[in-house]
Specification:
Structural class: mainly beta
Helix content: under 10%
Number of helices: 2
Number of strands: 25
Largest sheet: 23 strands, antiparallel
Order of helices and strands: EEHEEEEEEEEHEEEEEEEEEEEEEEE
Radius of gyration: 25 Å
Strand content: over 45%
Length: 517
């Protein structure tokens, strides 16, 4: 049991109508709504969670560029932060500086990525400048700095956007990074005692190595670059686009979310639209695209072709369906070898998908997402059959009560049976009791069942369950003067814990008073 009492201070000052200063000391984000549930099963890349904290969201778009060079979720728990955003005539400026009680960043790769954490304070700075001399042309730059003991990551970038006509848009961006990792960082991703010396023989059943070990086993400062070129042509009845992106194997954007490196990707696509009259669907789009990805050593990673149709019409309806055929590589057979060629297997996948959302009555919004087809079983490096079914509903019970519920059902079948069955339920209830007070309830439940006998290289738990609940009461004197009272808990179960057992609970109260000047 632990009890904490803390005091914090927030400042939001409109210095001019177009210049805003945000500052915070010891901010508390306990009242921020919990993230939407995501299934972390048969994934090789880190999950993306959007930012929800007000300090970071305020004028967030001032830092946007064509690349995801700033993702503030990499700043987990700052003691202080300062942000200045300003737009004057043709000039847009944003500067952000914070510390963090720990150092957290993404370790990217071309087949996998993961989060690294250093138990030490970090300092983080991001700056963005954009100059718009006309409506057709803009140019800008981004800089991010992340530093800690024996660690740093510096990123410098420039970008431009040019629209010679209303239908044509060119964008380009170039970024350069310099990084230093602690000498022993790679051990964080090593299942053995020490991965400093690669083994002479290594396979999926006996190797402690993985791609994150190879990407973090660096003894000195390293640097690389990334660039991205895009062209779009968009008319009322048809559109076309193409994009080329190249990311060096030593490029890092630790304050951003660039999860794939050592890759060159080309994409081209287009489609046709028409607008039926006197029909339920008022807009129909038929389109497709083709892409191919290689490593920087010109080893093929993936090739995909996709065609799809989109329909928009009555009841605010949107319906889309398509089929994709792709070739892509599975796991490295020798995890201590970074090469793709003669070290991986290429799989052929065909998958169909369907998505729709519509509003049958004013108070009800329904959504459905379905996938079915081939999918790589990444753990065992073989092809399986994926079934995914994801319905959701948003129901405005009354003018003051909104109910949200979604459920994701996902299975993967292999030749000898069902590898796993995963269920994820996400329930939210918001009750605006009055103009000044509200209650918010959330509950996220995950249930994953596996058949260990079907796993070739290791034996996972047959059962994993997780349940998180939160209830929050809030009372607002004004938008910044708020009283919060909340409770949250967590439960888990696995092969060693038969039933859902509580392993955490928290009571919290927050009082925030604002002087409005």
């Amino acid at each position: 049991d632990e009890t904490n009492t803390e005091v914090g201070l927030d400042l939001r000052w409109g210095i001019t109508p177009t210049t805003l200063l945000n500052a915070t000391i010891n901010p508390d984000f306990s009242q921020v709504e919990s993230d939407a549930g995501q299934l972390d099963v048969n994934n090789t890349f880190a999950l993306f969670f959007p930012e929800k904290r007000a300090f970071f969201l305020d004028n967030k778009d001032y830092f946007d560029s064509q690349m995801e060079l700033l993702h503030t979720r990499n700043i987990s728990s700052p003691d202080y932060g300062v942000k200045v955003t300003s737009k004057t005539d043709d000039h847009t400026v944003g500067v952000l500086a914070t510390n963090d009680i720990q150092t957290q960043f993404l370790v990217p790769g071309n087949l996998s990525s993961d989060i690294a954490t250093l138990d030490q304070e970090s300092h983080n700075v991001a700056a963005r400048y954009r100059y718009d001399p006309s409506k057709q042309f803009s140019i800008g730059g981004v800089m991010t700095l992340k530093t800690a003991d024996e660690y740093h990551n510096y990123v410098y970038s420039t970008d431009l956007k040019y629209q010679p006509t209303q239908q044509d848009t060119f964008t380009a961006q170039y970024a350069y990074s310099q990084t230093l990792y602690p000498n022993d960082l790679f051990n964080q991703f090593c299942n053995g005692d020490d991965c400093a010396i690669p083994p002479t023989e290594c396979d999926l059943s006996s190797c402690d190595y993985n791609e994150r070990v190879l990407r973090t086993n660096k003894s000195d400062t390293f640097s690389d670059n990334m660039f991205k070129l895009t062209y779009k042509h968009d008319r009322r009845n048809w559109f076309a686009s193409s994009q080329y992106e190249s990311i060096g194997d030593d490029f890092r954007a630790d304050l951003g979310f660039i999860e794939k490196i050592d890759a060159q990707k080309f994409v081209a696509g287009g489609g046709y639209r028409w607008y039926p009259t006197d029909h339920f669907f008022s807009k129909v789009t038929v389109a497709g695209d083709w892409d191919i990805t290689h490593t920087q050593q010109d080893e093929k990673l993936e090739q995909e072709s996709e065609v799809y149709i989109e329909l928009e019409g009555g009841y605010q309806s949107y319906v889309a369906s398509g089929i994709a055929q792709r070739e892509r590589v599975g796991r490295r057979h020798d995890p201590s070898n970074i090469n793709i060629q003669n070290n991986t297997q290429m799989f052929d996948e065909t998958i169909g998908w369907f998505y729709t959302n519509f509003v049958p009555v004013k108070a009800l919004k329904l959504e459905l997402d379905v996938n079915y087809g081939d999918n790589i079983d990444f753990v065992n490096d073989r092809l399986g059959t994926l079934t995914m079914f994801n319905p959701s509903v948003e129901w405005k019970v009354t003018e003051s009560i909104v109910f949200d519920f979604s459920h994701r059902y996902q299975t993967l079948d292999v030749d000898d049976g069902r590898l796993f069955t995963a269920n994820l339920s996400d329930l939210r209830l918001n009750w605006q009791i009055s103009l000044n007070s509200f209650i918010r309830l959330s509950s996220i439940y995950t249930d994953i069942k596996r058949d260990p006998s079907l796993y070739l290289y290791h034996q996972p738990n047959a059962k994993y369950q997780d349940l998180g609940n939160e209830i929050l009461y809030g009372y607002k004197l004004n938008p910044q003067s708020v009283f919060y009272l909340g409770y949250s808990d967590a439960f888990k179960a696995d092969d060693d814990i038969d039933n859902l057992t509580q392993n955490e609970k928290t009571y919290f109260m927050k009082i925030s008073y604002a002087w409005l000047l």
